[in-house]
């Protein structure tokens, strides 16, 4: 959270401000301007944040992955390009850019998680109700190192 105890100016560290009609926070002491959404994928968006959150829910709820054509149909966007741009903004936001890559000896394993699919006898990759989970762990002797999934 950007300001858990209320607004604090980035330049002068003061807490006095006023809000413009355009929802810009203006520091009363030094005049620095910022917005709650500045530095996020929501900055300068003309769409309501509730719509963004609705699309985020849809993206993470897709078991087979989100694709722009399906998002276009789901949201009723006028073009594929609009859906593609929204989807890629969300994908960029989900990447952790400062995460260190694992190094040294690494152990990787996979498993399928989900209920038993009755009727067709499918197991493993053939079962539609199961989700593939892959985990990578740094080996540090008898200790477990950093984990990525």
How would you sum up this structure, described in words?
The protein is α+β, with helices and mostly antiparallel strands. The protein folds into 3 domains: 1-36, no CATH class; 49-94; 106-148, no CATH class. Helix content is 24%, strand content 21%. It has 3 helices and 6 strands, in the order βββαααβββ. The strands form 2 sheets. The chain has a 3-stranded antiparallel beta sheet, with no helix packed on it. Strands 4-5-6 form a 3-stranded antiparallel beta sheet, with no helix packed on it. α2 (68-75) packs across α3.
Give the structure's gist in a few sentences.
This protein has helices at 49-61, 68-75, 80-94; strands at 17-19, 25-27, 33-34, 106-113, 131-140, 143-148. With 149 residues, it is α+β, with helices and mostly antiparallel strands.
């Amino acid at each position: 959270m950007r300001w858990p105890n209320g607004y604090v100016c980035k330049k002068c560290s003061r807490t006095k401000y006023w809000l413009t009609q355009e929802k810009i926070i203006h520091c009363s002491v030094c005049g620095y301007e910022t917005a709650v959404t500045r530095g996020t994928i929501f900055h300068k968006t003309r769409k309501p944040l509730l719509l963004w959150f609705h699309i985020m829910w849809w993206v993470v709820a897709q078991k087979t992955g989100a694709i722009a054509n399906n998002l276009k149909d789901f949201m009723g966007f006028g073009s594929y390009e609009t859906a593609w741009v929204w989807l890629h903004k969300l994908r960029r936001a989900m990447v952790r850019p400062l995460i260190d890559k694992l190094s040294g000896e690494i152990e990787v394993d996979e498993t399928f998680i989900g209920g038993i699919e009755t009727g067709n006898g499918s197991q493993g990759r053939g079962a539609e109700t199961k989700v593939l989970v892959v985990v990578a762990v740094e080996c540090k002797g008898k200790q477990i190192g950093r984990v990525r999934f």
